[in-house]
Amino acid sequence: MSLEMKVDLSFNDLDMLFKEYEEVMIRRMWELGEDGPGSGKSGSGKLYKYVNKVLPPKPSGHEAISRASIILAANRFVDKDIWDYRTTTGKGGHHRVYFAIMTEEDLWKALKKTANTKFDKLLEAGA
User: Fold this and answer.
1) Is position 4 within any domain?
2) Span 103-122, pLDDT tens digits
3) What pTM was estimated for this model as a whole?
4) Hey, how many other C-beta atoms are within 10 angstroms of the C-beta on 123?
5) How confident is residue 11, by pLDDT bands cut at 50, 70 and 90?
6) Does a structural domain hold residue 5?
7) CATH number where 17 lies
8) 3-class SS of residue 89
9) How high is the mean pLDDT of the chain?
10) 2 in a domain, yes or no?
11) Rg of the chain (C-alpha set)
12) Do 97 and 85 contact (CB within 8 A), yes or no?
């Protein structure tokens, strides 16, 4: 499995890969585990409320992160095959309920494999 992501090696742990709110989101999804799919606990609304409960508000008094940012990050996680989703119906129409398909260990292994492959190609090319 290949995992294309930007990595900032000046940081440690998940903050090398994710913004603070994204790290809160992904750790929350790992906490939910098997309760995620179909439970409603992992929809964007509940993630939004959770992240804004955990992170301090902005100095202006506004919430730490917008609902749109939560939805965009969740969709990026789906695109990277870290999360998946199921569509449910409810008030207002169809909604995505997200759940993790990659554990933290899987994430690091996939990232390591991708980095090693890229480094090998660079070395073979004489870089």
Assistant:
1) no
2) 999 999 999 999 999 899 99
3) 0.84
4) 9
5) very high
6) no
7) 1.10.10.10
8) strand
9) 88
10) no
11) 17
12) yes
Q: Residue 61: what pLDDT?
A: 78
Rounded CA-CA distance 106/111 in Å is: 8
Q: How many domains does the chain divide into?
A: 1
Mark 90-113 as b/e (b = at least 16 C-beta within 10 Å).
eeeeebbbbbbbbeeeebeebbee
Instruction: Give the pLDDT of residue 7.
Output: 87
Q: How far is CA 20 from the centre of its chain?
A: 11
Sign of the Cα pseudo-torsion (7, 105, 80, 95, in order): negative
| Cβ(19)–Cβ(26) below 8 Å | no
Residue 46, in any domain of the structure: yes
pLDDT 10s digits, 48-84: 999 999 998 888 878 889 999 999 999 999 999 999 9
Q: Which residues fall within 8 angstroms of residue 29, CB to CB, at 6 or more apart?
A: 36, 42, 83, 98, 99, 100
For residue 100, what are the domain limits? 13-124
**Tokens 């609304």, residue located:** 45
